Amino acid sequence: MHALTTVDFLLRLATGVACGALIGIERQWRARMAGLRTNALVATGATLFVLYSEAIGDPGSPTRVASYVVSGIGFLGGGVILRHGAGVHGLNTAATLWCSAAVGVLAASGKLTFAVLGTLTVLAVHLVLRPAGHLLDRAPAAGTDPDASVPATVHLRCERRTETHIRALLLQALTASGLAPTGLRAHREGEDTTSVRATVSVAGDVASALEQVIARLSLEPGVRDLHWHLEGEEDQGSAPAGISCWPEK
């Protein structure tokens, strides 16, 4: 069996780190939870584990260590998967970490060309299939009107002293998201609280359209309650369909 030299070790390690970093650059650019350093470290760890098994000279050891890496990376991926309401976030991030470990294993096994090809494939999945996924998300169901709009309401409660500022931000956030309000109502509750409701007409994915609005306003310290709901849902006594959040004071 060919002994692992220092040059081989460094070459394989550098390839594994570079492939993980390349994947991480795309993730960092997309502002995902696991970015440049995380993917680079995952690939580095996978590479080092398999390199260790190569260094000890056991013919069957690299295969066994690679299987342990696959199992172990599952626990790390599980840590980035979050449940938010009825949705689950972080699956793409977890799968990307899994792929980073895979290219690290390939690099450590001396399959440097395969490791590079695997890295390019992961990047292609993110860069090429992302627009295709968005097109599929926006594809209307059979028998539906793609231009049909859904009325929704953004409801917030804020401190009275910030009412003017919050209303201006609400209109600005709706405009920035391409939503034109069809109605705006402010109602004073108690001595220091104002309730503001803005109705909008949204075409397509309601949650995606209002996500930026909710995220922007939730950062304001004067906002006490914030959510959106489809027209008629709240009046019927059902829970709001949107995201509710109470910013820290």
Automatic annotation (TrEMBL):
This is MgtC/SapB family protein. The chain crosses the membrane at residues 6-24, 36-53, 65-82, 112-129. Residues 13-132 form the MgtC/SapB/SrpB/YhiD N-terminal domain. The keyword Kinase does not apply. It is found in: Cell membrane. It is a multi-pass membrane protein. It comes from Actinacidiphila oryziradicis. Its main location: membrane. It comes from the Bacteria. Belongs to the MgtC/SapB family. Residues 154-228 form the MgtC-like C-terminal domain. The keyword tRNA processing does not apply. Keywords: Cell membrane, Membrane, Transmembrane, Transmembrane helix. The lineage of its organism: Bacteria, Bacillati, Actinomycetota, Actinomycetes, Kitasatosporales. GO terms for cellular component: plasma membrane. PANTHER family: PROTEIN MGTC.
